[in-house]
Amino acid sequence: MKKIHMSPDMNFLAWVYRFFDLWLPLILLAGLTQFVSSVELNSDYWLIGIFSGIAFVSFGQLSGLYRTWRGDDLFLTGRLILQAWFLAWSAIIIMVFFLKESESYSRLVMISWAAITPFISILIRLIIRYILGKVRSHPKNQTKIAIVGAGKVGQQLAKNLLNKPLLGYQIHGFFDDNESLLGTKIDGIKILGTTETVCDSIASNAVDEVYICLPLRAESKIKSLLNELNNSSVVVKFIPDFFTFDLMHAQWMEIDGLPIVSIYDTPLNSLSARLTKRLEDVVLSTFILIGISPILVMIAVAIKTTSKGPVIFKQTRYGVNGQKTNIYKFRTMTTLENDENIQQAQKGDTRITSIGRFLRTTSLDELPQFVNVLQGKMSIVGPRPHAVVHNEQYRKLVPKYMQRHLVKPGITGWAQVNGWRGETDTLDKMQKRIEFDLHYINHWSVWLDLKIIVQTVYKGFIHKNAR
């Protein structure tokens, strides 16, 4: 299988975007300094402007910002821009912090610059997309396609294309071997004939591209159709039936020309994503630990003076790839259970100390885990770690349970901000938690991490399910 490359115009457009993103931060920064009379555009601003442009493009490249936009959602592009700029801004903060040059910059200029830059980048793309969309929406510039197979995959393809008319696709019709459907319409698209008649449309120049959406079991039909189409000049594309094998989150990859479908995987499995996630964890946890250090001291004193035992409780949990690791929590109980007889905390549990109940209700007992994050054992955002004995129990009862260990466990997670935290006294509750954990793993992005962190703060640490 050959690797897919962008068409020349899309490749050129990607370089145009790179050019804008490289110089946009510097131009905006220089412009903003002219609006503040007390600020002079000196070498410090030139340095940070050039550095930010390089960082912006670099992180954008890693996140896939400059791939072909045709078919991509504008919201997705905006999210990738915000993600790349957030990482670039984090790199700027680290650089300024270590160089001890923060006093050299105007806070008004820097904050305004940080807020405006990504939105100007989005606006530039919006204008370019609008112009290209208008050009492509003209009938003479549209790509006419035939969809072979009116099943679930074919209907999904048609729906996606109909929802994005500015992409410049015009659906000629469906072709399906179900004779009872001939002449009828699905979502306004007529079924013109069987799979054997699609070549007639090609011969009459009514079609530019053919999308084969037949199920994998129709192997002989697909081979026959491909043999017929290889004598034409139309573009032919095959869309596998991902619905049949629950492969909607599968990823295509290639090893020395051999195509491979990665079925159980995560975006965090790439080196660039792991480095991005690690940078996010180190930067945020460092600043958080510095900010909460007085709170940590007060809690430690309160625990030590109100009950016997250590301040910090270490408990073995499963980490990334199912490897055992110790996580830190403030001790909230009179017992230190860390074996096969661990019992989940329940409402009115007599083992919980007076200060421990308050810490659990407010989630303050989890604060030492930011040290785990710095150690690389945990992330700020990820599936909450369960005790080893509970893992062994639920992995036999909940399908795909162990897939939550494809990533590092987190202090907060998608399940927690959606209400699935605390005691899992029924199997349904655990299944629901795993459902949200797997959604996070399959859809990870820096944007999603920031959303979860904001929701954790916004919704508060206090929750009715906390024990």
Highlighted features:
alpha/beta, 3 domains, two-stranded antiparallel ribbon, 14 helices, 12 strands, flat, disordered N terminus
Task: Explain how this protein is built.
It is a single chain. Mean pLDDT is 80; it is low at 1-9. The strands form four sheets. A six-stranded mixed sheet has the order 3-4-2-1-5-6, with helices on both faces. Strands 7-8 form a two-stranded antiparallel sheet. The radius of gyration is 27 Å and the shape is flat. It is α/β, with parallel strands linked by helices and 467 residues long. It folds into three domains: 8-137, no CATH class; 142-263, Rossmann fold (3-Layer(aba) Sandwich); 269-459, no CATH class. Helix 2 (43-63) packs across helix 3. It contains 14 helices and twelve strands. Helices cover 48% and strands 12% of the residues.
Sheet of most strands:
6 strands, mixed
Strand order of the largest sheet: 3-4-2-1-5-6
Structural class category: alpha/beta
Q: Which stretches are poorly predicted, pLDDT < 50 over at least 5 residues?
A: 1-9
What is the radius of gyration computed over CA atoms, rounded to a whole number of angstroms? Answer: 27 Å
Order of helices and strands: HHHHEHEEEHEHEEEHEEHHEHEHHH
Query: What is the approximate shape?
Result: flat
What is the helix content?
40-55%
**How many structurally independent domains?**
3
Number of strands: 12
How many DSSP helices?
Answer: 14
Strand content: 5-15%
Average predicted local confidence, pLDDT: 80
Task: Report the span from N to C terminus.
Answer: 54 Å
